[in-house]
Amino acid sequence: MIQQIYITDYLSDAAAQPTDMIQSLVEQCPIFFGAQWQVNSLSPLKSLWQRLGASGDATSAVLCARMPLPVAPPAFCLLPVHLGLRRDTFSLQSIVPLAADVYAVLSERLKNHFLQEFTIHEDPSQRYWWVVPVREINAQTQWPQYCLYQQAMHWQPQGPDASVIRQWTNEIQMLLHEAAYSPAVTNWPETLNSLWFASVGHIPAWPAMPLTVSGQGDIFSGLQASRLTAAQSIPMSTMFADQKMTDGVWVADQWQAVNWAEVSRALQTGRISALRVVIPFAERSIEIGYKKQFRWQFWRKPYTLQTLLQQLETTLAAAR
């Protein structure tokens, strides 16, 4: 029995526009209209790390674990972002996907400009880079998902070398401005205006627990590479069919990767009697909780899409 599904949205592609995601979920899984929906103060990644018993943020370390390490372990993951600028401050709005030619141009310019400061290693996803400083940099920076829509004062680099990160970021601003007008780039993203340094910590010491974790995507691959003993490559249909599996977790990077029609069938046929789904919602997350109802519980009026979205938006506004 699969009991929990986590949509990590680790690159925050869905966090800013959850309406399409929610509409698709309830279309493919109408039984969710009868579930309980609530806004959680934790982001999807923090909810996942909490469930797996990791202390602190494991995102960068888990993603890095799936990569062949360079001569020295990377200290930072560097991500392209859009900062919303206001008169007195600015905030992180999104992580920006890059076309192949844009990624290639930026990779080359970063390597050349920062040759004396750090080395750059490309990631096969072409969504970010790994940074290995030539000297030890004692600075702590957060993963972007934890900082969405918060004013800059809440997520500035910390530590003795925080000023180094700020200096690198300032120099990157100028590089981006120059690269935007390069003849080698034909489709520069209008929203790209900065690069974000996220610290790469140590792989957590995963606690032993009676849990089966499966899924697909970069986060799950990283969990396997980081020696999470609970991580097993099991198809979702197999997890549904295993009635002895009392505590299962399915991990996916994107909501589109999950077979929600299969989830719906499993709920309707009783193969799953209880399910918890964690999906992104702005800087927080939504928890969908479903339990097989007894006859006397059917008095509760199910949601419509409109009432559901209104309730979630109202709850999010109140939480802010």
Structure description:
The chain has 320 residues and is of the alpha/beta class. The chain folds into two domains: 170 residues; 126 residues, no CATH class. The chain has nine helices and eleven strands. The two termini are 36 Å apart.
Q: Which sequence of SSEs, written as H and E, runs from N to C?
A: EHEHHEEHEEHEEHHEHEEH
Mean pLDDT: 90
Distance between the termini: 36 Å
- Report Rg: 21 Å
| Total discrete domains | 2
Number of strand elements: 11
Largest sheet: 6 strands, mixed
Number of helices: 9
How do the strands line up in the largest sheet? 2-11-10-1-9-8
Strand content: 15-25%
Q: Give the proportion of residues in helices.
A: 25-40%
Structural class: alpha/beta
Q: Describe the global form.
A: globular
Low-confidence stretches: none
Brief write-up:
This protein is of the alpha/beta class. The chain contains 9 helices and 11 strands.
Essential attributes:
9 helices, 320 residues, single chain, alpha/beta, globular, six-stranded mixed β-sheet, five-stranded antiparallel β-sheet
Record the SSE blueprint.
Elements: E1 4-7, H1 18-28, E2 36-40, H2 44-51, H3 59-65, E3 76-85, E4 90-95, H4 100-113, E5 118-122, E6 129-133, H5 162-180, E7 194-199, E8 212-216, H6 218-225, H7 236-241, E9 248-252, H8 260-269, E10 274-281, E11 284-291, H9 305-319
Parallel strand pairs: 1-9, 1-10, 8-9
Antiparallel strand pairs: 2-11, 3-4, 3-6, 3-7, 5-6, 10-11
Helix pairs in contact: 3-6, 4-5
